[in-house]
Amino acid sequence: MAVDSTLPSPLGVPACEKDDKALQFIEEMTKNVDSVQERVLGEILGRNAKTEYLKRFQLNGATDRETFKSKIPVVAYEDLQPDIQRIANGDQSPILSAHPISEFLTSSGTSAGERKLMPTIHEELDRRQLLYSLLMPVMNLYVPGLDKGKGLYFLFVKAETKTPGGLLARPVLTSYYKSDHFKTRPYDPFNVYTSPDEAILCADSFQSMYSQMLCGLIMREEVLRVGAVFASGLLRAIHFLQINWKQLAQDIATGTLNPKITDASIRECMSKILKPNPELAEFITNQCSEENWERIITRIWPNTKYLDVIVTGAMAQYIPTLEYYSGGLPMACTMYASSECYFGLNLKPMCKPSEVSYTIMPNMAYFEFLPHESSTSVLSRDSPPLLVDLADVEVGKEYELIITTYAGLCRYRVGDILRVTGFHDAAPQFRFIRRKNVLLSIESDKTDEAELQKAIENASVLLKEFNTSVVEYTSYADTKQIPGHYVIYWELLIKDPSNAPTDEVLNQCCLKMEESLNSVYRQSRVADNSIGPLEIRVVKNGTFEELMDYAISRGASINQYKVPRCVSFTPIMELLDSRVVSKHFSPALPHWTPERRR
User: Who's near 450: CB < 8 A, 6+ residues apart?
Assistant: First the structure.
């Protein structure tokens, strides 16, 4: 049975009956946005009526929007932290949610240098699974035949820890991959991966990547799509292949697994997959030994129809490199999600990266929107902001996303800035613009201006004995090489040139900065190897004056000019790089453990 093409806004003709139900569900949700949102808020407030949090603001069991908006404040993570800490410490009373908190999802955003802890409840897995189940029915409208092959997806679990009260704290995808929803998922011909679960669930990132890459190479003819969560993750996989192809080819030639792979479950499952294939090994050797790696993805996986990666927001910086390695394959951004909540999906997944818009599904949570021009003002109980409902946002305007979730977050500021690009039925579609206040980002790390400033202040202490100070600085995320790394430009005031800081001291300044950055950055450096050593480039005296002159020549006001703390405009980068007198790199890894600072 096909979706009737005479409907006012049909998505298209489904590939199978299961897809038909999914597409009809999307249509039902997007046509009835406001009534679904009203029902969702009523359910959330009804079930959580007796929680300490809602009682604190005298909601008195009310479930209507008007009372909710007049009594419940808009909050940031820091406002909820005392309540979250009580739950983490073992308090099982209904503080935020009437349902028991099943675990904490650790956000890539940080508070006081540590990952934010987002409380979740068991049924949220069902909601996340529901959104996942809608992705392929939409993709099948645009790319036929995906049931005839496999997806080469590089998926990983990350370190998890326990709170003092014994609850697990881990990233949302680690939680999902370790859940029965993923491990015991029913067979779906449209969702077959080359990577065995044993490889995905291996906590050792080298063994996991190695075995996933090996399986992808063995099944190269079957691969119809290649992906990772973020664009940076897929580039890391290509870089891994550049480093390890000789050993991978040897494993394929001989049918024996690299002895560095010690995980027993991986060795057992690979024994069924890996057989001697000298012809394939020779092919891989011929391709990978070439100096030119342009189109390497389509050369090794010739039937690839698209890349499945997030290339919006900070990930957009990787688009040119992915185009180079893939020969310009389409890049599909399929869904929009965070640790706090899964939001929605892209109903036109094969559009250009610059045109990606996400349709928020109104059943996932209760959504409100703070007009961006007012999101910079201080929000208080005395001057509550006027928030706009999901059905009432206006095309062309930018908003900060505010969510109320089944797990107990109420009017919580996610920190994402979104622009309304249009509607599907009655459901608005949003383009992700940026994270609020994020200055530097290579992968899941997010470093803001205050944090960068603090890191520079800490590193500057090492310059004091040389009577030297940092007079000006700026930064950028260098993603030309894999892994990317932070570059900090310093202009120094050296009062005694005969006692200038040595190269070794400036290298230590790099490490001191890294030690000062948040735990997500340090984990990316230490455990994930997804960020390279921080670099300081010392520039000639007067460089930042030249930078100001350049900005003024382009129309900036001399009275309002501020040194940009992060740069990406090519002429400015060229100016800075032409004035570099020395380069310095962090000589060691910063300290990081999975345990949270107490």
Answer: none
Closest listed residue to residue 414, CA positions, set 428, 386, 441, 433:
433
Least confident interval from 1-15, 125-139, 145-159, 403-417: 1-15
Q: Check: CB of residue 213 under 8 Å from CB of residue 247.
A: no
**What whole-number distance in Å separates Cα of residue 555 and Cα of residue 168?**
53
Q: Could you tell me the end-to-end alpha-carbon distance of the chain, in angstroms, rounded to an integer? A: 57
What phi and psi values does residue 543 have, to the nearest 5 degrees? -60, -40
Burial of 92 (0-12, 13-18, 19+ CB in 10 A): exposed
Q: Look up the pTM and report it.
A: 0.83
Q: Residue holding tokens 């030119």? A: 292
Sheet-wide strand order for 485-494: 468-478, 485-494, 535-539, 580-585
> Could you give the CA distance from residue 596 to residue 250 in angstroms, rounded to a whole number?
41
Beta-carbon-side half-sphere exposure of residue 204 (alpha carbons within 13 Å):
12
What is the pLDDT confidence band of residue 380, given thresholds at 50, 70 and 90? Answer: low
pLDDT above 80 for 429: yes
**If you average pLDDT over residues 71-100, what whole number do you get?**
96
Closest CA to 507 of 576, 452, 459: 459
Rounded Cα gap, residues 165 and 249, in angstroms = 47
Tokens of 200: 């995905």
Is residue 284 within 8 Å of 296, Cβ to Cβ?
no
Q: How far apart are CA 56 and CA 276, in angstroms?
A: 67
Question: Which among 309, 261, 271 is positioned nearest to 151, based on CA atoms?
Answer: 309
Helix (H) or strand (E) holding 440: strand 438-440
Contact (CB, 8 A) for 438 and 452: no
Tokens coding 555: 């129309």
For residue range 282-295, list pLDDT tens digits in order: 999 999 999 999 99
* Ramachandran area for residue 463 (φ above 0: left; ψ -120 to 50: alpha; else beta): alpha
pLDDT digits (tens, 9 = 90+) for 128-171: 999 999 999 999 999 999 999 999 999 999 889 999 999 999 99
